[in-house]
Design a protein that fits this description.
Layout: H1 4-10, H2 17-27, H3 30-33, H4 44-55
């Protein structure tokens, strides 16, 4: 069963850009404290973050 933090990482791939942005804002504090959460599924969360940057350059 995924943790709440892992579930939150899943929201950065959501179809709604506002949901992606909100999830990312909540994940920022964990980017240095727990970077492993972004390195799962063959770095899929990082690929999703790249898409988010295109939404909000």
């Amino acid at each position: 069963m995924p943790t709440e933090l892992e579930e939150l990482v899943g929201f950065i791939a959501h179809a709604n850009p506002q949901i992606r942005l909100t999830a990312t804002e909540h994940l920022v504090p964990y980017s240095t404290a727990e970077p492993a959460i972004f390195k799962t599924d063959d770095l899929k969360p990082i690929k999703h973050l790249k898409l988010l940057v295109r939404d909000h350059p």
